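=== RUN LOG ===
request id: a7f3
mode: sequence -> structure
chains: 1
length: 272
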Amino acid sequence: MQLQNIPKIKHIDSGQFFLIAGPCAIENEKMALRIAESVCEITSKLKIPYIFKGSFKKANRSRIDSFTGIGDEKALKILKKVSDTFDIPTLTDIHEIEDAKKAAKFVDVLQIPAFLVRQTDLIVSAAKTGKVINLKKGQFMSPEAMQYAVKKVTDSGNKNVWITDRGTMFGYQDMIVDFRGIPTMRQYAPTILDVTHSLQQPNQNSGVTGGRPKMIETIARAGIVNNIDGLFIETHFDPKNAKSDGANMLKLDNLESLLCNLSKIRETINHF
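=== RESULT ===
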């Protein structure tokens, strides 16, 4: 899988990691455009290849009264507007077979959520759209097991596939990242580290997932040092009032300093 296969991707020869970043969910058009504009300015300055992400719906919520979206078509049209406005590729996740064709009309990358990465029909339906497929590693899966998820995509005639590590369950209410899995998964496909979801603290008594955002830079630095191909970071200008995953998102104001530090580390690593 080569980055140049993604429409509108920029800075592919910079030697930097690529970045998937944006809000957890599309809440409205104004917030999506605001976040995209800020991240575009930063990544352009640092010459980091950038893909905007945002869920058009949230199907896997802890509680029935949790926010699930503003309407599928409305959210997908906002993702398309982000792409058209800033000339950047976009990513969203899908949860059902019929979502694949629907979302593929609006975005460049289709993501299979970690909880669903064993679902063969879902993966095959996504692969057959011809879009780039981002497979989130299940919190319950070994790095070695991801080769079979990748094979489901490639055997469906699509060679454009990535793996994203979003942490492994450690007990009932915590996640860890096993960095030994990065070189393993890179044998199968370009591998991304989902920094923010790796710091989630699920299964809280409140029914709202917690997180440890102060550890974001620690985990991201370790990923860069271990030759990760890309980083996945959810960010919001007001995480405390975000409608989904606010507890583990990076505040948008802190993104530039983080990426500056990480890009310097990547430049150093490139000399080895």
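=== NOTES ===
The mean pLDDT is 93.
The two ends are 23 Å apart (CA to CA).
=== END ===
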